[in-house]
């Protein structure tokens, strides 16, 4: 919590110098300001989380959703699949638990689909055409924001449906297809043209044929990494991406009774949980590090373990003989790297699913002049997301970055603004950020504990025998309760704490939604208002700065 800054007594006025008034001489004065909440700062999609939570807690759901889709076109999707770094940075966690931001976002997204809400698009047509290669989250986000900016957008998608890895990499028990398809359809309804089953192989020819003014490359990482494992007689081996895609398309492979998954990321968890749902009696993960160094998010591993998935930590496959796997026991050194021990074990499995990460397919760009690549095949872009070829931009899995749906979505929005500026012969300058509000700046002494509203889960039996969505989401009353847990860090929410505490009546209420202003002729700079503000929307500055 912040420290007190009240001045019990400032120096009295010097009457011999004809100073006005006989009260204390003010050496500081308060100001209202807006600062940056840590949730907003942590959001890869750039959402103004504090603002839409404030609207949601007031029951203004449509306005909250409109504020949300100013930045993110698919809140029903993100409320389910985003790993919510906003919550990891939430100041509320220092008091009890973080606000369940993703759950409120899902509630708003689902309500919008039920009510048929549409985003507000008012921009006039620019007459410019943009080609987007790839219809995954980054491409869809770029298309949406470019359309909102007045441009005509065409997506060329190699697959049979838009969504990319949202469709083929995330199981339906986490992301139901009805909600996904509906949010994609809403983007399409804004005027975005989506051409399916159209793989781009010659980018320059594609640009010329379509008379496009700029291009954005957003092909997802769908090529599974391979590993060489000595095998006398290998059994059924498949990669995780192909496995999950086959389940999505209905061509379910026969796995057998025991299924091994090699890898420790989120895709490995999805593959193991999917195998259980397909009837595998035993699904176990083989991973070369310990849990502390596992790339999968903790809750993903927790849910897999709850469903009966076993994880063999510190193990690496050395040899396969049909259904017998020879694994070496590893140990973690001081840097967290796995080191061999020379001790071996055997495991039995009827099928092996490789979940060792994915690469992008960027070969079709290698004939484009000016485009440069990293060693892993990702495309090098400048700060404005443009490659070395003028007018050619890239984002999402195509560029060096952490690979999540929300980061890809943020890339799409960022690229859209830079493409818009490029087409207008301008440079996009991102607005500067306010100062970040840490918990130490808050004054939360009067706030009581209010634990996070947990979303209801299916039972373990229900989870492992169907692909029904595991989480039920929040009801309207639960969503309002959860939104009201927000501290509104750094942003005035008109609690009247300052207004009621001011001993000089120097604060004037301007009406609902308009906040307050100071009457500095009455203000003594005592800082009582500053101390009473719970969210640090007031600061005290030296009088010389007035």
Question: Which value, in Å, is the CA radius of gyration?
Answer: 28 Å
- Main sheet summary: 5 strands, parallel
CATH architecture of the largest domain: 3-Layer(bba) Sandwich
> How much helical structure, as a percent, in the residues?
25-40%
Strand order of the largest sheet: 4-3-2-5-17
Task: Please write the CATH class name of the largest domain.
Answer: Alpha Beta
Topology:
Elements lengths: L27 E5 L5 H5 L6 H9 L3 H9 L5 H7 L3 H4 L12 H15 L13 E5 L3 H12 L3 E5 L8 H4 L8 H13 L3 E3 L7 H8 L3 E4 L5 E2 L6 E4 L1 E4 H10 L8 E5 L3 H12 L4 E5 L11 H9 L3 E3 L2 E8 L1 E9 L5 E11 L2 E4 L3 E2 L32 E3 L10 H19 L36 H5 L11 H9 L12 H5 L5 E3 L6 E3 L9 H5 L5 E5 L4
Parallel strand pairs: 2-3, 2-5, 3-4, 5-17, 7-12, 8-15, 9-10, 9-15, 10-11
Antiparallel strand pairs: 1-20, 6-16, 12-13, 13-14, 18-19
